[in-house]
Each structure stands twice: as C-alpha cells, then as structure tokens.
Amino acid sequence: MSDRPRLLPLLTTHRHGSRSPMTCLYRCGNACDHPVPNRSDNPYFGDLVDAEVSRRGVVRAGAVGALVLGFGGAVASGAAPAAAAPDAAGPPTVPAVPEISDFAAPQRGTGSGALTFKAIPPNKLDTLVVPNGYDHSVVIRWGDPVVPDGPGFDLHRQTAARQAKQFGYNNDYVGVLPLDRQGRRALLVVNHEYTNEDLMFPGFTSQDALSVEQVRVAMAAHGMSVVEIERVDGTGQWQVVRTGRRPYNRRVTAHGTRFDLTGPAAGSAFLKTAADPRGRVVIGTLNNCAGGVTPWGTVLSGEENFNQYFVGGDAVADEVKPKLARYGISTTARYPSGSRRWERADERFDLAKHPNEANRFGWIVEIDPFDPERRPRKHTALGRFKHEGANVIVARDGHVVAYLGDDERFDYLYKFVSEKKYRTGDSWAARQHNLSLLESGTLYVAKLDQTSAAEIDGSGRLPADGAFDGRGSWIKLVSGDRSYVPGMTAAEVLTFTRFAGDQVGATKMDRPEDVEPSLRTGKVYVALTNNSERGAAGRPAADEANPRNANRHGQILELVEDSGDNTAEAFAWSLPIVCGDPADPSTYFAGYDKTKVSPVSCPDNVAFDAAGNLWISTDGNALGSNDGLFATPVEGPERGHLKQFLTVPVGAETCGPFITADNRSVFVAVQHPGELTGASVENPASNWPDGDIAKPGVVVAWRLDGAPIGT
Ligand code: FEO
Ligand code: CA
Ligand code: CA
C-alpha cells in the first residue's frame, strides 16, 4: 500500500473477554450467539454425589515420576521427535533424514527449572513485546512464498493459485521438526485456522459480495504449511530458507488436498457422498486449530469450528438435524449468521445437496512433513468433535496415548490409547509401523468427581481442604470396532462422539482447549479457557473442576494418571492455576505468593520447554491487556510462579507456542492481529508486522546472550 493506513478508533464493543465481535464472527461463526450445542441432560457432576469416590478422593502426589524420558529412548519426546531413516527394508521416501539427539539438550530432571526472565507487564501496544535481554523476529507471514516457485504477496493481484503457493492466513499451531543433527535446519509446520475476509480483500463489503475467485482464495488460505527454516548465525533466531530445492515445502488447503480416512468409521454410511461413494477420501481440511508433534515425526492437527462452513442445514432430513445441531450447525436457517458462503465455489458445502459432507470434518489430521508425496490422513479412531488438537505420549508399556479436547462450552475431554505399541529405532520399517498407530485403539471420555462438592458455590473460593481436586475415570466409548455405548455402533460413536459422551455421563467442562502431557512426568495439563454460560439460568452450575460461574478467565487442570501409567482408566485431578488478576480472590496459583505472579486470562494453548516448565498462551484476555505467552514451573517450590514472557499486537491472540528442545528458541503464532470490528484493509486496526496492513505471522524469540531460556 502506498500510504500508511491510519489507525481506526477502536470501534469494538468487546463481547467475550477482550474478543471483538469480528473475531467472534470469523473464528467460530458467532458460536456464543447460538444455543450451547450440549443440551443433553447428562448430569454435570455438581449434581452427583459419589460417596465412594469422595472417600478415595485424594491427590496422590508423587504417584507419577517413574517415567524416564529422553531423546532416542523408548519413550520418545513429542517435543522433538526423531524422524526415521530409510533403510534397506523399504523405499526411501525422505531425501535426508535427521536424528534429534544432537539437536536437543537431553531432557533430565523433574520439571522444576526456574525461569530467569523478568516478567513483562500487561500492555495494549501494537507491537510484540519480549523481556529485556531477549529479541524477536518474524519468521514468516501471510502471503510469503512457501513452495520454491511461490509468488510474493501482492494485495491487489491475489488469486487462489497464488495463495495456494503462499503462507496461509491466521496461523495457529506451530511445530518445529529438526532436519539435521546440528540444529541448523528444521521444518516449520503451521496450521491456518480461518480467514478474515474484511482484512484480506480491499473494498470488502460482505461475504455475499465476494467473487467466487475470492472464496477460493479463502479456501487456499486455510489448511497447513510446511516450510524449511534455518538457524541464523548459531543464535536462537530462525529464518525461512529462500534458496535451493526445499523438497519438503508444501501447502495443504481446504480445497486442493486429498485426505485418506482411516479407522473404524472410514467407509461407513455416514461418510459417503456423491463425490466419494466409498467414504474414504475427503477433499480438504478445515479450521485447523492446535496440534502436536508425534514421537515418529509427524504432526497432528485438530479440525475445530468446521460447522461454520456449511449452509443448507435447514433442508436436511429431520432425523439428521439433531446430528448437525449437536455440532453447532444451524438446522433452521439456510444461511446462518456469519455464513462464509463457500457453497458458491463448491456445492459440497451445501448440506441440502450433500448432507454427509459435514461428517467428513471435525477429525484429527496427521501429516508427515518428511514425505511431501504422502497423502495426509483423518483418523476416525480419535473421534469427531470440535478438536482443539492432539498431543501424544508413549506410555510405559509402549502404547501410544493421545489427549484430546473438544473446545465448546460444556463439552468434554477425551483420550485415545493405541491398539499397537510404539516401535523404537530409526528403521524405515519401524517408522511405517508407527505411522499406523493412530488408526486403531480405544477412545475414552473423562468423568471427573469432586472432593468438596458441598463447598463449591460458584465464587471460586478454595475449599477447606485447600484444593480444587478429586478423582476421575476414563469411560470407554469404543475399542477397535467394538462400541461400549448402548445403541450406538462403533462408527456412530466415532462420527457422533459428542452423543456418546452425553450418554455415558461425561463431565461438562469449561471449553477444553489444548491438552498436553508433560513428557518428563506423564502428568497431563488442560487449558480450560472460559465459560460465560457456567451457572447461567438453565445451564450447569459451577463444580469443583469448573469452580466459577460466568467463568471469564478460565483455569488449568492437571491430571495424574493412576500409577503414572498413561493408559490407566482412572486418575487424580486438581486445578494448579485458576486464572485472572492475582488480586482477585477467586484466582489461585498453586499456593504461590500471588503478589509475584502475572495476571493471566483465557488460557488456550499449552507447551513444555526442555526443563519441563509449562508455557501457556492466551486467547481473549478478559483483563483488558493484549494476549500473551506465560510460563510457570509445575514441579518444586516454584510451581505456580507464573510469569508473562511475551505479548502480541492489538487484536491478536497468541498461538503455537513451541519451544525448541535446546531451549533456545520460542516460537509463537500471532493470529488475527488487528481483528477489531470496523477494521478493514483500508483502515487496519493494527499495522503489525510491516507497518501497513495487519498480517498474521509466526515469530521466534530468543535470548540475546545465547543462553537457554530459563535455567
Ligand atoms: Fe481454535 Fe479452541 O481455539
Ligand atoms: Ca477439594
Ligand atoms: Ca486454540
């Protein structure tokens, strides 16, 4: 743009936390304006008195700890996986093959590393802020070329073909997978969750007025990117490789990439369409939110708010309507509010014509970034809901366990345990075996019981026993082809998983976002972001795991699986952090001195550094500051000492995050900068990152003295 755009006065009336109505519209199709999809009478546990569980309900501190985790060991690190070497046993599909062991500092200790950076204060600056002694740079932004012949960004000449070769919009999940033993090159794998046409197209007036080509641009701006990056001068900084073959660089989009369906629901009647009568191949992936790196060097990605891409739900058969409504798809209007009108470019988004198409989204996707020719897969064994993401740990006995959250108010927490065991070693055969691990297994949903039910009044006041805590169980929904839910086949359980959770009495949570096991301790951490409707008329009231009515700031849940075994069917749980302004008596930081912690609101994505510290990024800070990234030890005397590491620019949310295994680089995705109602290309509300229009982008932060972040 020739003239530097002027900032708008901030027109927005914030609705949910600091989220602008524009974010509500584009990100989740105004989900909060629609009825909560979970209308089941599945009793929330505030109604339940489980005397047996209450008697047993103590946190078994120290129950976990026997896991020995290290790179190259039997329990591989999801934070920094080894990609397997091709060997004589099979065709080499990967040109160059890394091992992680030399890239990363080995993981040792118990996760009690102190964090040495000085917390930054909350702020509303239109820039990215890191602590003193740190620097940051933009690695890649919307419109930058991804494939080697990709064109540069030109706002006024954008086409779907150009966008399909460029970095997509609204980066969310970030994974960094090493390409060599020296830590010099890596693959950056990023999700592109959704588009904001107001901020992408000059002269935008409405979705209806977009040209069909512009709709296709938006489709191409969804999906994922794989980009080769390199370390800058031995520092913690990374940049995109701009020369050479770059054989892995790749775009995955909503309309140009085919996905194989795997698992028990693949080929079922629910997944068959006119274009795919076998029900086994889906075009595209939608609304890819968070994710995780597997120990075998692939990336998992969650298809989240897929509901908003479909029209025509009013015209489906009556028996189908509840199945759409439970997933947030309107069954009363042809064009629900916020409709993206994609059916104008591709009629499969019209449910009146193709009622099963919506069933083909809402899955966990697995992509092998080391094999650009390999078709990505959608794993039906992990169930269908508004998947936030998936994070994997190899259990002691070798089974692979994936933890999963359904990001909707009053929806559920899940886990998957593989049927087969993880195979160690770097052989081609071992990797092929491990690539099949998510195709068959057992899917569970969580039921949490409480120790202090009578004391929970919705205020967030800590019970007399000093903790929000209890025990819980994993309720088996399906194992292989066998359903454990009365009246539902395995394919039904996996395709309409929310109904299965309703039926077995799963616990209604405050929006389960990212769920991630610590690879040091095996303990599992869940970001419960907020729930404006908790305790509202006719809605479930507070319970011990969701202890505040009208919950604006969210909480962190910690699960400790029985005997430290991630395949266990029972666990202890507690809330180490109840978010908000530390001066607010309803907040809790593991008992740490609240005068020393940073205010935090709306936890969303979580990650671990190599020292085992928990990093938390926020979405929709209801305290008025920009969103940011925080870190806290979760073991030892510093547990609960939460400090703010970074803030993102005006209107943005902080996604990713990813801390490299050498603990020297922190990657975050800056999603939807400048997304404030009234903003446009002509009048951006943020000028980040280049001083003109707002562009989502991935940032790396590093310590200037070259030392690891923290200790
Ligand atoms: Fe896309 Fe649940 O955040
Ligand atoms: Ca308690
Ligand atoms: Ca998220």
From TrEMBL:
Pfam family, one: PhoX
InterPro entries, per the entry: PhoX, TAT_signal
Top-rank taxon, per record: Bacteria
Name this polypeptide is given: Phosphatase
Species of provenance: Micromonospora yangpuensis
Lineage: Bacteria, Bacillati, Actinomycetota, Actinomycetes, Micromonosporales
